[in-house]
Every structure is written in C-alpha cells, then in structure tokens.
C-alpha cells in the first residue's frame, strides 16, 4: 500500500545576505489617522484672530470711514444707538468702530513687520554663527548679548525725544531689538545639524556651504522659526500697545489700541466702552495668536 505524498507549504528561498523585511505596523481598530481634531480652545483662538484681522482689514475700507473726523455735538454717543456709529463715539465725537479698526491695522502692521525684520536678521546671523562657528560665532553672539543689554524703553525714549516715532520707525526699532531670539534658536539648530552624517556626506562630495545651508539647514530651521515668529507676534503686539499707552509709540492723530486705552481711561466710570473695546481687541489678538502659535508643538506630542 502506497502512502499518498504529503503536501507541504512552499518554502521561499532566501538569498544570501538579504535582510528580512518586517511587515508594516497595522494601527489598532478605532485608531484615528491624520491631523488631530481641533479643540474648543483652538476654535475660540481662531475666531479671535479671524475677527480682529477682518476688523482691521475690512472696516477701514468701507465708504465714509474717517478716523480723524470730529463732531463735538455727537460726543459720547451710546453704542448701537445710531447706524453710523455702531459702537458709539469718543470724547471728541469720533467714531469708535472706525478708530478701533484702524488701530488694529496699525498694531498688526507694526507687530508683523517687526517680526519679519527680526526673523530675517536672526536667520542670517544664526546660520552664520552656527554653521561657521569659531571666532565669527563668538563675535555674533557677543553682539547679541549687547543688544539684549540695551533697555528697549530707554532706547525708544531717546528716539522719541529726538526724531519722534512713526509706525515704520517703530517697526524697524522693534525688529532690531528682537532678532537675538531668532538668532539663538537658529544657531543652536545649525550647531547640531552641521555634525550630522548627511551634512558631512554632502560636504565630502564637494557641496558648497551655500548649497548645504539652502538644501539641508533651511528645511529644518524654517518650521521652528515660523512657530517662534507666531509667538513673537503676540509679544510685539504687547510691546507696541504698552509703548503707545505710555505715549512712546504711535502718536496722535493716528490711532493705536494702546493709545485708545489711555485716552479712554479718564472716562472709565462714565463711558467704559472707550477703554474696554480696544482692550478687548488687544486681548483677542494676543490670546489668539499666542495659542495658535503653540498648536504645531502640541500636534507633535
């Protein structure tokens, strides 16, 4: 009696020196993919930023908006009492909504402009210091330490007393005083990246320093730089509003949120809207920008 041949599973031949490939990990059932769902706080922050941006960009473009027009006969008009003055008027009869909208544009312009100046300057200085190293690194970081040692308020007092302060001048000054934050971040990342294998391999293959910085360092540095820039926008809004509040920032007749808070403070008990409305816009801007700037960090956790 012959036994039937036994069937066995085919055995795959493995070539010599081949590395077995592990199967890709399969996510457990119910696992969510893609970006994390927005939280309630994130939605509120986004609404804050969107509202203030629309306020600063759209309202000043509407017909009939004049932030300097005075009408003493219509001073201290109540909010929502007249379609032409939805938020009322101030002590000089100027439309509060128009002034808040234009002041938001001014504050955002100064904050964004100063952050762009400081980010670009810090990026260049940080890459030079971190990638080159040596004496150049020590010299640039010493310049940064001296910059941090200069009191911002004292410098702005001197400038305001000599040449005055315009939005452009204030933007440049704040940008030149804040570049060290970006330079130190970029420098620390460049010091770490220049020791990596892919940078050494590119250098050994004959790549120029400019090519290495453009192809390797910038791709790793720019995302972190943008996160820091988002955070610094809120910081610059705080500084600009504080300077305008004490009279060292934007000067009349140009409105600013900090200046409007200072002008409405004497009427806080009788007409609190003159102070609370611009203060609420400052809060919405700072809170919204600060939280949204932290979203990339939280998404990676």
Q: pLDDT under 50 segments (min length 5)?
A: 6-34
Enter the CATH topology name.
Answer: MetI-like fold
Q: What would the principal axes of the Cα set say about the shape?
A: elongated
Radius of gyration, in Å, reads 29 Å
| Number of domain modules | 1
Membrane topology: Multi-pass membrane protein
Domain ABC transmembrane type-1: 104-293
Transmembrane segments: 42-62, 106-131, 138-161, 167-186, 225-250, 270-292
Organism: Litorihabitans aurantiacus
Task: Describe the model.
By secondary structure, the chain is mainly α. It has helices at 40-58, 96-132, 134-149, 152-162, 167-177, 179-193, 197-204, 209-245, 257-264, 273-293, 295-300. It has a single domain (40-59, 89-300), classed as MetI-like (MetI-like fold, Orthogonal Bundle). The protein has eleven helices and no strands. α2 packs antiparallel against α3 and α2 runs antiparallel to α8 (209-245). The longest helix is centred in the middle third of the chain and has 37 residues, at 96-132. It is a multi-pass membrane protein.
